[in-house]
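Researcher: Please translate sequence to structure tokens.
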Amino acid sequence: MDPQSAKFIGAGIAALGIGVAAIGVGNLFGQFLQGALRNPSAADGQFGRLIFGFAVTEALGIFALVVAFLLLFT
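Model: Translation complete:
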């Protein structure tokens, strides 16, 4: 296998992290909504944790994108 092919395969595998982050964000908001509908009085107290989890999950997706671009263009 030549190095160019290995670079493309590695970037494709690294790009899978973006999809996994999208699944994580959907799961995060879905679980929050489910909990908020079960106990509406506790939803305000959990909103800060929701935003923190969203930020961390999106950051991991962005890191995966950066790694994929580094593999492609360096």
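Researcher: Any highlights?
Model: The chain has two helices and no strands.
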